Amino acid sequence: xxxxxxxxxxxxxxxxxxxxxxxxxxxxxxxxxxxxxxxxxxxxxxxxxxxxxxxxxxxxxxxxxxxxxxxxxxxxxxxxxxxxxx
Length: 86
Prior knowledge:
The chain is α+β, with helices and mostly antiparallel strands. It is built from two helices and five strands, in the order αββββαβ.
């Protein structure tokens, strides 16, 4: 008998690995270091958190966006952060 919970977790892990490979970091031009996905059960939104260079960036997709989503390459950390000297 297959543990469906485990099988679903493996599928989700493989899917996230594939998705991570499609997201490039605008700062270094390489795939992001890590990608996490969480479901907000209250709003049904899906939150994707990209990690690279010790920084993190969230992207929130509502339920309707996720339901009909077509996966395509993307760019994270597109905004330029200016450090102001103290």
